[in-house]
Amino acid sequence: MRDHTFQRLARLRDEAIRARASDGVTVAVGGHPRFVGQVASGGAIPSSTKKVFLVHPVTLDGPEREGGIASFSADTTRTIPVVMIGSRVPAAGDLVMALSIGGRWVANSGASSLLSCSPCSLPRKNLVVSWTNSQLGNGSTPLVFNAPSNWTSACTQQLRFYLACSASLIQFGVKFFLNGSCLGEPSQTCASPGLNPQALVLDSWSCSPLYLHYRATAAACTALSNRGYTAFTITA
User: Fold this and answer.
1) Which of 18, 53, 95, 178 reaches 20 to 30 Å from 103, CA-CA?
2) Is 3 helix (H, G, I), strand (E, B) or coil?
3) What is the pLDDT of residues 62-97, one digit of tens each?
């Protein structure tokens, strides 16, 4: 085991020397060699992290000014095995920073761009909620992502919307303020999942692309029904 570690360290030093001698891809920072690489597929790219990915070293270029567009060139003649950690599974073509640790190249792929939930994983970004209204007309408003796992809207048409991934389950709600603004009470909140009968029913959905369609039930959500709201849709 000790001999294997020495062999890996020697290989890393050799790769660092060759990289510095060629394009300066690898540099020493605090005594730890590192390089920017582009994930490649050798025909069996892993579908999860904590596994070895193949990476081509990359040379960066471009104008050194604010707003300048950086360019990169991958050396496809060289392939380096890198242990990938983190929750996001990188795809071929992604750029990563590999660091020499314990005789191996290691890269952190970062956090997943999707929040695991049911029935669909949700993207960690702003979404859009749209509504169908027979009296006031249809409309939409942004759902702003608030880390780590919820989305909220501004006040619109006496409504505030919220979306959350709680206990791995998507929860969606609409709060209707009866006093003409979005301040104070009285108000009525219609949500899914909720009490039986549910005020909002998730009756159709698609995960890719994201599409969640909620039907508002008149019996359980009279405030929205009386104002003409019949359905809400969430899209990415």
Assistant:
1) 95
2) helix
3) 888 888 888 889 999 999 999 999 888 888 888 899
Q: Are 131 and 229 in contact (CB under 8 A)?
A: yes
| 128 shares its domain with 222 | yes
Q: Give me the count of residues in the chain.
A: 236
Question: Does residue 87 sit in the same domain as residue 153?
Answer: no
How many C-beta neighbours within 10 Å does residue 117 have?
A: 19
How far apart, in whole angstroms, are the C-alpha atoms of residue 210 and residue 207? 4
Which H/E stretch holds residue 78?
none
Range of the domain at 188: 115-235
